[in-house]
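From the methods appendix. Each design record in this collection lists the tokenized structure first, followed by the designed amino acid sequence. Records were kept in a plain field format so they could be parsed without special tools. The example shown here is representative of the layout used throughout.

RECORD:
FOLD TOKENS (213 positions):
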């Protein structure tokens, strides 16, 4: 098992190391699951929908406001962003999901889509960089960037001065960029829409839940 190393001196800012409890299982899972870019993107849509599901269940099976999940494709920059206006994350939660590979806290919870803790790392199959931005109510807007070749020395989440870019000022945004050509050139707006509709038909039928591409 890998260990977490945190440096606290002023000359060496704090960094995070990935903690991989079972590297073989992780690699096998990634190899089995991600046969397309659309399937990679669904991992991040999954996470947004799981957060929306928490809001739904905590409010007597009603959404407390119109949930918005957006998938934005920048074909010129070869970049895709998944953004929601759900609960957002604290610094502790954001750093935990990036660092603790294969140890999802969703495991055993029957109603969520993602359960195995590998999905955050899905970008590694096709792209170079993943950037998280998130803000929870009464918490700072945070950013954390992870590169595919990083295992140790990952910079901790940093506060951002600008508002979080959602209609209610909270939520989570994942941007993945640096796609390899063969992974990016096959995707279209239509192919992403079809993947979303095939995976999340039941949830899309609910009121106040909007997914746009």
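DESIGN:
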């Amino acid at each position: 098992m890998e260990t977490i190393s945190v440096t606290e001196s002023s000359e060496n800012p704090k960094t995070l190391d990935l903690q991989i409890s079972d590297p073989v299982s992780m690699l096998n899972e990634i190899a089995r699951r991600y046969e397309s870019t659309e399937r990679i993107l669904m991992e991040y849509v999954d996470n947004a929908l799981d957060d929306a599901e928490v809001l739904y269940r905590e409010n007597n099976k009603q959404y407390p406001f119109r949930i918005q999940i957006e998938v934005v494709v920048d074909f010129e920059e070869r970049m895709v962003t998944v953004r929601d206006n759900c609960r957002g994350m604290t610094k502790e939660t954001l750093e935990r999901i990036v660092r603790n590979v294969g140890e999802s806290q969703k495991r055993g919870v029957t109603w969520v889509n993602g359960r195995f803790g590998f999905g955050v790392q899905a970008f590694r199959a096709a792209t170079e960089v993943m950037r998280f931005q998130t803000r929870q109510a009464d918490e700072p807007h945070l950013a954390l960037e992870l590169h595919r070749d990083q295992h140790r020395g990952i910079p901790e989440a940093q506060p951002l001065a600008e508002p979080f870019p959602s209609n209610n000022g909270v939520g989570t945004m994942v941007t993945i960029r640096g796609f390899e050509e063969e992974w990016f050139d096959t995707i279209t707006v239509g192919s992403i829409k079809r993947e979303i509709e095939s995976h999340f038909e039941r949830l899309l039928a609910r009121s106040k839940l909007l997914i746009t591409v």
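APPENDIX NOTE: The first strand starts at residue 15 and ends at 16.
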